[in-house]
């Protein structure tokens, strides 16, 4: 939590008081099933604007994974001329995955670029790293 030390505005945005208890708002979205199992469905920062519409990276990833041959995926939002890009690990062909998503998503949510990776990059916390994936594409 060193990033919040002496940063009152950041701290105020990330911590809330509920019933006299302090809670950390992580930005993770999840749900409990009837058996009490917790599922992480993404992050609330996974929304971005594309072609004038609000697009969910989590929705794109969830739909890609329903194909069955996708084991892991991340989305790189469009920015500074870089297209909306889906990066994935799995056995699916890039063209077949594009066609599959085009049949399931709104046109503004369909990635303009789809890239297959042998292994998606991870950050220091072991989470998928879209920034590093973009760098690999830029320098690949």
Explain how this protein is built.
With 140 residues, this protein is α+β, with helices and mostly antiparallel strands. The chain has 4 helices and 9 strands; from the N terminus they run αββββββαββαβα. Strand 8 (85-90), helix 3 (94-102) and strand 9 (113-116) form a beta-alpha-beta unit. It is globular, with a radius of gyration of 17 Å. The model has no long low-confidence stretch (mean pLDDT 88).
Given helix and strand content, the structural type is alpha+beta
Strand order of the largest sheet: 7-8-9
Number of helices, counting only DSSP H or I runs of 4 residues or more: 4
Say how many strands there are: 9
Q: Ends: how far apart?
A: 34 Å
Name the helicity range. Answer: 25-40%
Strand % is: 25-35%
Query: H/E order of the elements?
Result: HEEEEEEHEEHEH
What is the CA-atom radius of gyration, in angstroms? Answer: 17 Å
* Average pLDDT reading: 88
Low-confidence stretches: none
Largest sheet: 3 strands, mixed
Please identify the oligomeric state.
single chain
């Amino acid at each position: 939590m060193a990033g919040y030390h002496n940063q009152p505005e950041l701290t105020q945005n990330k911590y809330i008081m509920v019933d006299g208890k302090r809670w950390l708002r992580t930005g993770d979205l999840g749900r409990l099933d009837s058996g009490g199992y917790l599922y992480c469905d993404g992050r609330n920062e996974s929304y971005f604007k594309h072609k004038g519409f609000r697009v969910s990276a989590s929705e794109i990833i969830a739909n890609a994974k329903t194909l069955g041959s996708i084991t892991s995926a991340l989305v790189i939002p469009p920015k500074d001329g870089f297209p909306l890009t889906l990066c994935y690990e799995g056995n699916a062909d890039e063209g077949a995955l594009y066609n599959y998503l085009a049949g399931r998503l709104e046109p503004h949510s369909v990635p303009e670029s789809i890239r297959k990776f042998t292994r998606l990059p991870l950050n220091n916390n072991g989470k998928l790293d879209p920034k590093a994936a973009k760098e690999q594409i830029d320098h690949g």
